[in-house]
Amino acid sequence: MLQAGIVGLPNVGKSTLFNALTAQEAALAANYPFATIEPNVGVVAVPDERLAVMEKLVKAQKVVPATVEFVDIAGLVRGASKGEGLGNQFLANIRETDAVIQVVRCFEDENIIHVEGSVDPIRDIETIQIELALADLASVEKRRDKAQRAAKAGDKAAKTEMEVLEKILPVLEEGRPARSADLTDDEKKIAKGFFLLTTKPTIYAANVDEDSLADPDSNPHVQTVKKHAESENAETVVICAKLEAELVALDEAERVEFLADLGVSSSGVGNMIKSAYKMLGLMSFLTAGEKEVRAWTIPVGTKAPKAAGEIHSDIERGFIRAEIISYDDLINSGSRKAAAEKGLARLEGKEYVMQEGDVVDFRFNV
Question: Are 364 and 326 in contact (CB under 8 A)?
Answer without folding.
Answer: no
